[in-house]
Write a structure and sequence with these properties.
The protein is mostly helical. Helix content is 71%, strand content 1%.
């Protein structure tokens, strides 16, 4: 073992800092916009409670992974060790906002209740991550990657990609221009002046168009000087304050929360493990259990201080390493986030930058996540991936119907399921298929992938798991309980028995393609 002290900062850390820092900044602007314009959270809670807690969590995370990189560099004597990137999990950001916080805020008429439910959601996920650090290898071994990535691809389409795509085409002068700027660099390989990150170029271009149109009286992007002036009111030093009471207040919505918190916690385990393996393939081997438990611990600290968003190891370690990132870029990003969140600077940035300039970045993230479901699974598993998308689309469709009817002062029950059915809206079908969509996607895609591989016993085991989960309300039900949808549970049980019988008595041809053709690398991404 060498005792030489690794360099804390290198020239290449500047490149990684501007790229990764822009990534984190965009994510923070996005979550601020979601809290402000979707949840309608008061500014004093956003800038005085939530963002300071989020900044603390991100700082702890980036410093810890810089520390792990420092230890690895010191023990190996290498100078090319790159810290793992980490930050707010973007898919989870949208799930907690649109699936947990928004419905509860609308139901109660109180955005604070939605915030409390989000805190409880993260509280539960944190313990899943901490405990799962020891279970993750087993979970990954038994679950087809098509099921895990297919479920996430469904989320990427329904809850990440759709809204930004709609925003872009509502203001195409900004949205499409920014989108092309991003694609030209991230897909087409175009390098901008002095290596300025494409995300920053898109934001600057979108802001310039928005403010230029405002000066001409066209007002594309909704920018105005009044909002800009008002943003200075959020300036000030805000330390994160304990929010333990709010965390436990959210337990009144436990039935709704568990349906997504547990399966998403399980997905986090596999995602983090994949990203650690990607770093190992690039030459930097970090301890998987410590990484997973660290995500859980820092997420728990953040949630107890008021942050309703989960922390995650990001995909893209090989990309940051390739452009020179080492140890310092991670810690420097943590310092930047702390300054932005504790001094109220994000409010000014929100007033300067139109939301539609950020939307293309989110759409690209959705594209990347959806593409990975096909790129990192066997070609023969493509039908399983497609099947995994369907429950998420059903959940999105039901949410759109519920929100539309709610805006009109009514609901589906009042309108009548029969009347909705007469115009092609099978509301009850959306309700059953879309409830617990993450688990539904995992089970259906797991059954399908196993059947494609001719692993009929394993497919039957997934069907049996589906029967048990459905019986207790984790799937196909909007609330946890006993026998909420008994016929669906019985159907899964019948499927399990049928598959077991086929495995024992039927003659089965061999699968046409190997089942475990998995790609352990990762495509460098601007956000996770």
């Amino acid at each position: 073992m060498t005792t030489s002290k690794p360099a804390l900062w290198t020239t290449g850390d500047w490149n990684a800092f501007f790229g990764f820092g822009t990534n984190i900044l965009v994510n923070m602007l996005t979550l601020t916009a979601l809290l402000r314009y979707v949840i309608k959270m008061p500014d004093d809670i956003i800038f005085g409670r939530i963002l300071p807690a989020t900044g603390l969590m991100l700082c702890l995370s980036t410093f810890y992974y810089a520390y792990l990189a420092f230890k690895l560099a010191k023990s190996t004597g290498r100078t090319d060790v790159c810290a793992l990137p980490s930050g707010i999990s973007v898919p989870h950001m949208f799930i907690v906002v649109f699936v947990i916080m928004l419905p509860i805020s609308l139901k109660t008429g109180d955005p604070v209740k939605g915030w409390e439910a989000g805190l409880t959601w993260v509280f539960i996920q944190s313990f899943v991550l901490m405990a799962g650090g020891f279970l993750a290898p087993y979970i990954r071994k038994i679950t087809p990657r098509a099921a895990l990535l297919g479920a996430l691809a469904g989320v990427s389409i329904a809850f990440i990609s759709m809204r930004p795509a709609l925003d872009m085409f509502m203001t195409p002068v900004i949205g499409l221009v920014c989108f092309v700027i991003l694609l030209a660099s991230w897909v087409g390989g175009v390098r901008y002046y002095k290596g300025i990150p494409a995300g920053l170029v898109a934001i600057l271009a979108g802001s310039a168009i928005a403010w230029g149109s405002t000066a001409l009286g066209l007002n594309y992007g909704g920018m105005n000087l009044a909002n800009l002036g008002g943003s200075f009111a959020s300036f000030g030093f805000s330390l994160p304050l304990p929010a333990i009471g709010h965390v436990f207040s959210g337990f009144e919505f436990l039935g709704v929360i568990l349906v997504t918190a547990i399966p998403f916690g399980i997905y986090d385990l596999v995602e983090a493990m994949d990203n650690v393996e990607s770093a190992a393939a690039g030459g930097d081997s970090f301890p998987t259990t410590r990484v997973l438990t660290a995500d859980g611990v820092v997420s728990l600290i953040g949630c107890l201080m008021g942050n309703p968003f989960i922390n995650a190891v990001y995909i893209g370690h090989p990309g940051w390493k390739a452009i020179g990132g080492r140890i310092g870029y991670s810690a420097a990003t943590g310092v930047m986030v702390l300054i932005l969140s504790w001094f109220g600077i994000l409010a000014l940035l929100m007033a300067l930058i139109p939301v539609v300039a950020i939307s293309p970045i989110l759409l690209y993230i959705g594209m990347l996540i959806g593409a990975q479901a096909f790129q990192e699974t066997p070609k023969s598993h493509a039908p399983a991936v497609i099947l995994a998308l369907v429950p998420q689309v059903a959940a999105w469709g039901k949410l759109m119907i519920d929100n539309s009817l709610g805006a009109a002062g009514t609901n589906a029950a009042a309108v009548g399921f029969d009347k909705l059915g007469q115009v092609g809206v099978l509301y009850h079908g959306l309700e059953v298929l879309g409830s617990g969509a993450i688990l539904v996607s995992l089970i259906l895609a797991g059954i399908t992938a196993c059947m494609i591989d001719r692993a009929l016993k394993k497919a039957g085991a997934f069907a049996l798991a589906g029967a048990i989960l459905t019986f207790f309300g984790f799937m196909h039900s909007e609330a946890i309980g006993f026998a909420k949808t008994p016929m669906v549970a019985l159907s899964y049980l019948a499927l399990a028995l049928l598959l077991a019988a086929c495995a024992k008595y039927a003659t089965v041809s061999k699968a046409t393609e190997p089942a475990h053709h998995e790609v352990h690398g990762a495509v460098p991404s601007p956000a996770n």
